[in-house]
Amino acid sequence: MSDALLELSGVHTHIGAYHILHGVDLVVPRGQVTLLLGRNGAGKTTTLRTIMGLWHASQGSIRLGGEDITRLDTPRIAQRSIAYVPENMGIFADLTVKENLLLAARSAANAAQMDGERLQWIFGLFPAVQKFWNQAAGKLSGGQKQMVAVARAIVEPRDLLIVDEPSKGLAPAIVNNMIAAFEQLKRGGVTILLVEQNIRFAQRLGDGVAVMDNGRVVHAGPMAQLAQDEALQRSLLGLSL
To answer: Which positions are tagged coiled coil (predicted)?
Structure first.
C-alpha cells in the first residue's frame, strides 16, 4: 500500500454545543482515490471541513505529508498543494468562468499569464469550461458549475484534491465525464478524497473506502472488498450496492 499523504488520528470536532466527530481515524494513501461513504448526517462533510480548517478539531491530529496541520487556518492549509471543492461548489456567480479560474491561479496576475498548456488539458477534461469561458458562472447549469468548480481546483497542480459529492444532481453523461476526469487526475499522481453517494461512481473510482457512522469511521478497507460483500454493505450502509 502507498504511504499516507493524509492521516487523521482521533479527531473530534465540536460545532457550538454539538459534538459532531467522535474520534475519526482516516488514512488517505498517496496516489489513490479514497471514498468516504455513510448515511446522511454521519459526519462526512464535517470531516472534510475539519481537514480544511473551516472547523477546527477540538481533539486529535491531522497530518498532511507528515506535517501536523491541525491548528493551521484555511489559507495556510490551501497553500500546501491541497484543493477543496465543497458540496455547494463555491462558485462566484457574478464572475465569468475565466475569472473563477483566475482566482485560483496564484501564479498568474491576469488570464494571459495562466498556464496555457494546463488550460488546454482542463478544456479537454471539461469542454463546457472552454465553451462558457467568458460567461457569468451563475448562469450555468448545475453540471456545468460542478465542472467549473473542479477545474478551478486543479487549475494549478495539486497533490491532494478533496471533493464533496461531485456527482450530486448531475445527469449520467456528465457523471461519466466527471469519472473520466478523476481517473485522469489519478493517473497523473493526484491523491483524491471523495465524499460520494452515487454508488456506481464510488465503485468505478475508489481504491479504498472508509465508511462513517455517528461521527466515527466504522469500516476501512479496499473498495473492491466492500463492493463484493453484500452483507457488509447492508450492515454499514443499510443498502446493497
So the answer is: none
